[in-house]
Amino acid sequence: MDFLPIFANVKNTLCLVVGGGSVGARKAGVLLEAGAKVRVVAPEIDAELAAHRAVEAVIARFEATHLDGVKLVIAATNDREVNKQVSAQAQARNIPVNVVDDPELCSFIMPAILDRSPLMVAFSSGGASPVLTRMMRGKMETVIPQNYSRLAGFAERFRTAVKQRVTNPAKRRIFWENVFDGVIAEKVLTGDEASAEAMLEQMLADEDNIVRGEVYLVGAGPGDPDLLTFRALRLMQKADVVVYDNLVSKPIVDMTRRDAERIFVGKKRNDHTLQQEEINLLLVRLAKEGKRVLRLKGGDPFIFGRGGEEIETLAAEGIAFQVVPGITAASGVASYAGIPLTHRDHAQSCVFVTGHLKDGTMNLDWEQLARPRQTVVVYMGLHGLDTLCGKLIEHGLPDTTPIAIVQHGTQPTQRVISGTLATLPEIAEREKPQAPTLIIIGGVVTLRDKLAWFHPQRSE
Ligand code: SAH
Q1: 295 lines ligand 1 (CB under 6 A)
Q2: Which of 33, 57, 193, 410 has its CA 20 to 30 A from that of 170?
Q3: Atom of ligand 1 at shortest distance to CA of 222?
Q4: Structure pTM?
């Protein structure tokens, strides 16, 4: 950071503008708007400016005595020598000085501003590119409409009352966010301040319900942030706390609100039970503190995601929640690896199963899985790969049935390892795929050779 951004109080303070041309007049205008008294020094001064009641017009060339009693200086002449002199004299007296378009001579610079008083946004490139700065301001003009002034003024009027009523700072922040996000702000922005005031009074009167926490159970998809839904993104930007585990990719976690608290609840394989209960209780506790809690889960929350259990606890505790579906690993992996899950020539059905081993055995309906013309997708199956392939052959699938392991599907580190039920365990032993991995079994796997070539994400 090259400059410290501050907003200075110049009300009734004497400021000096050297230069009486259009630039000088504009700078004097900004100072006057901020309530300053302005001394303008120049051989010629615009008559309208000179007539302003807070302006002391001095028709002269600049001299050091013009700095007497001055708290802030702007030099806006078109003569660099004069500007230099103003800068040197002011700095000798420790008076902050700005020379228009000449950062070297400045002890402070003036930002481009977006004025929605009392809301004020300042833009600066530290003198690097005023044009870029003004373009940025132009963009923000459209994002922050004129009537935000009114909204900020409304908030200012209630600031003290709300502070007295909602004493907990975290709750107070949420209270205001709810006001700005909701119908009260809409009323203010459309000019109906009377209704807005009545609604705010009502909110304040109902002390227990002032701030109510809620939980967003959001599917984050298999890893590529482009696969998030709009709703997921909106809630990610809104939540006060983010609870996530190791299936959620880092670029996605980084897209949550900057100042949100982030809690990692990484789950280890075979160590789910206790942790899951702890997570359920954590969500309840955070929501009861009035927070908007984002429970971010890999893929889809309702597919092998234990989302059902989490909302069961919330429902039992009377906590508001919403569930946002995500792209499940099977869908994401299938399209990024070039393996359609169904295809008229290969598979009319597709089943998703979990290969998570309980007590070292895989408890699956092998008869059903070993059917022809069917795609089987196995989540959490890598550790049982030998058993999986063996059992499927035992129950009637040809040992030449194609099978693929997809590591880190949809992510830059995606890798596909393929073979047959007979060969894949040995290949996997050698290739050592890294979790998370998804296993896809069936004729559709052979389509990859034809289709993956065209996919931009093809990694091999
Ligand atoms: N709710 C998640 C699944 C959670 S179970 C979903 O709908 O996708 C965890 C398993 O999902 C992992 O063991 C792995 O089998 C699979 N998985 C999740 N993300 C994956 C990815 N990017 N690539 C491959 N497999 C993935």
Answers
A1: no
A2: 193
A3: 22
A4: 0.67
Last residue of a domain, one of 110, 137, 165: 110
Would you say 373 and 347 are in contact if contact means Cβ atoms under 8 Å apart? yes
- For residue 222 and ligand 1, the question of a CB distance below 6 A is answered with yes
**Domain harbouring 195, CATH code:** 1.10.8
Q: Which of 229, 247, 354 to mutate to test the pocket of ligand 1 (most atoms within 8 A of CB)?
A: 247
C-beta of residue 411 within 8 angstroms of C-beta of residue 434: no
Is the same domain home to 195 and 286? Answer: no
436 alpha carbon – ligand 1 mean position (Å): 6
- pLDDT tens for each residue of the chain, 460 residues long: 888 999 999 999 999 999 999 999 999 999 999 999 999 999 999 888 899 999 999 999 999 999 999 999 999 999 999 999 999 999 999 999 999 989 899 999 999 999 999 999 999 998 888 889 989 999 998 888 888 999 999 999 999 999 998 888 878 888 888 888 878 998 998 899 999 999 998 888 875 666 778 999 999 999 999 999 999 998 999 899 999 988 999 999 999 998 899 999 986 555 554 588 899 999 999 998 888 999 999 999 999 988 888 899 999 999 989 999 999 999 999 999 999 999 999 999 999 999 876 666 788 999 999 999 999 999 999 999 999 999 999 999 999 999 999 999 999 999 999 999 999 999 999 999 999 999 999 999 999 877 665 555 544 4
State if residue 223 touches ligand 1 by the CB under 6 angstroms criterion.
yes
Of 166, 190, 209, the residue at which a domain comes to its end is 209
Cβ proximity of 313 and 281 under 8 Å: yes
| Pocket probe mutation, ligand 1, options 438, 439, 459, max atoms within 8 Å of Cβ | 438
How far is it, in rounded angstroms, from Cα 312 to Cα 185? 34
Catalogue the E-assigned strands of 303-457: 320-324, 349-354, 374-379, 402-407, 415-420, 437-441
Q: Which domain, by its residues, includes 234?
A: 214-327
